[in-house]
Amino acid sequence: MIKNKIIVIFFGLSVILLFISALVGGIGLPGSQGPLILRFNKFAAEANLIGDLRTVFSMGLVVAFIVLINFLLAWEVYHRERFLSYIFAAATLIVSLLFLIAVSGIAAVN
What pLDDT is stored for residue 55 in this prediction? Predict the structure, then answer.
C-alpha cells in the first residue's frame, strides 16, 4: 500500500490539512478561557452554539482519530479490495478538508 501513490498522497494531504487546521485554530482563536461562538445565525443576529477552546480542539482529536481509523481500514483491505481503500483515502481527505473549513469559520467568527 505504501507504494501506491494515490493513497499515500490522499492520506498525506489529510494529515497536512489536520496540521493546517491546528495552526488556524491555534493562531486564529483567542487564548482566553471565555466562551467561543461555534455557530452564528446571521439572520437572527445571534449565536446558536457557544463552546470553549477545548471543544474545538476535541473536535480535532475526533477527526485525527477518524483519519487513523480510515488509514488502518485502508491498510487492511488494500490487498483484497483496492478500490475500497481508494474510497477510504478520498473520504478521509474530504473529512479533513471539511474540518479545516469548520475551524476557519469558527476562527473568522471569533
Answer: 82
